[in-house]
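Before relying on records like the one below, remember that each one covers exactly one chain. Contacts with other chains, cofactors or solvent are not represented anywhere in the record.
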Amino acid sequence: MYHIGHNRKLYILAAKYYDNMEQKSLFLKAYGNNPKLNVLDFLVTFQEFDYSMKDIAKNAKIGYNTLKLFWKDLVDRKIVTRTRVVGKAKMYKLNKENPEVKEFIKLYWLVIDRETERLLSQKKLLLKQLKDV
């Protein structure tokens, strides 16, 4: 299993940054901003919890109707799994037992790791340049 480093909370915090006043993850910056990746980004970042479709759409910053366009595919491919029912809401979470999801999680954290290192290197270089002035 891929090890993401000493402090997972640091990575989760580093995975989010502000770009043009819109919160976007380093993963989405590297791989593009589209509804399906937004959902996967949210589900990987908060993989320990389950959510209703409405909450997933809201937290992934996509429309509920947009989510419905590809949700059946995520369920059929067992990318997400239903965990329970709360009232009328069906709750789902990322299916970490799916081999495809396991590999995606590895890729996700590898990208976060590399992008974080790249940004830290840029900041260190900038600080050094400012110090030399």
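The first helix runs from residue 8 to 14.
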